[in-house]
Amino acid sequence: MGDGISNGIDGISNGIIEQMIPYTDITVSRLIFAIIVLIGGFISVKFLVYIFRKGIQKTKLPDLTTQFLAHFLSILLYVIVILAFLKSLSFDVDSFVVGLSAIIGLVLGLGMQDTLTNLSAGVWVAAIRPIDMGEMVIVNGQTGKVKAVGIMSTELLTPDNQLITIPNKLVWGSSIVNMTRMPTRRASVDVGISYSSDIEIAIMIALDLMKGHPLVLPDPEPAVVTTELANSSVNLQLRAWTKTGDFAAVKNNLTAGIFEAYRREGIEIPFPQMDVHVKEIKKEIKEIQAKSIGIKAFE
What is the Cα Rg of the chain in Å? Predict the structure, then answer.
């Protein structure tokens, strides 16, 4: 009797599994198999990309290149998984691929050149590395820290935590200023002194300030140059070399320090002024009024 019940249950299960899904030619068993393929494929993609990242990191390639290649591989594998899923549902994948290729060719002819340009530019950026992860750069007029370089675009994070996305063709096609690639940088601070101040004393005070700063490098030696004889001031520029990581701190300290040092030593830092001279014109107004009255009387 037990065997009969088991056979009955098996018959019902087989009947459900082999039942066709309404309005389709897909059986329940084939759908279950396709879902297993899809889930297994996604898990396999994550595992393969993880293995790929671990393997490529052993080659000591830059993080930027590793990230770019991992993104490219994951997209390629996901496309393969989706095609396998469709194939397991008895879709004609071959004709689909041919049709998709034709559509892609048409779209490329109608304006996908920019996509290919961004793709190739991303490859060149990842390969030649004018920028790298975590570096502070100016790209296409935008300033920020490099967060990621993808297949199509590059992401910068600004100092005030704004995310900027720039198409790769603009990154590769514009000048790139890398502010943190070199180990040292020169901090420049502009300051103006009045024409009545002693320029030699002002220069000595500035040099002492820079040489006494613990983060200013002794080589190259700090310097002060006269940059301009302006309308109301003699403009000086303090030039001090420091490690790139200390650049912002040194520039800020020197800016505040030179102001305090000049005020303490009596060196005047002028600011724009405008003198307005008001003349007494009441008499002239009366004469004009008298003339106008005489002209009207004559008329």
Answer: 37
pLDDT of residue 184: 96
CA atoms in the 13 A half-sphere facing the CB of 241: 10
Q: Which two tokens stand for residue 61?
A: 């390639």
Q: Which of 241, 247, 246 is nearest to 221 (CA)?
A: 241
Lowest mean pLDDT across 93-97, 122-126, 139-143 = 93-97
Spatial distance between the Cα atoms of 130 and 180, rounded to a whole number of angstroms? 11
Please state which of the ranges 15-24, 83-92, 179-188, 212-221 shows the lowest mean pLDDT. 15-24
d(CA 18, CA 27): 6
User: How many residues are listed for the chain in this entry?
Assistant: 299
Q: Which residues contact 8 (CB under 8 A, 6 or more apart)?
A: none
Strands 176-178 and 136-139: antiparallel
CA distances from 71 to 43, 137, 150, 170 (A): 16, 23, 7, 20
Q: Look up the pTM and report it.
A: 0.59
Amino acid at 212: G
Q: Going by C-beta distance under 8 Å and a sequence separation of 6 or more, which residues neighbour residue 63?
A: 132, 133
The span from the CA of 237 to the CA of 191, in Å, is 6
C-alpha span between 54 and 60 (Å, rounded)? 11
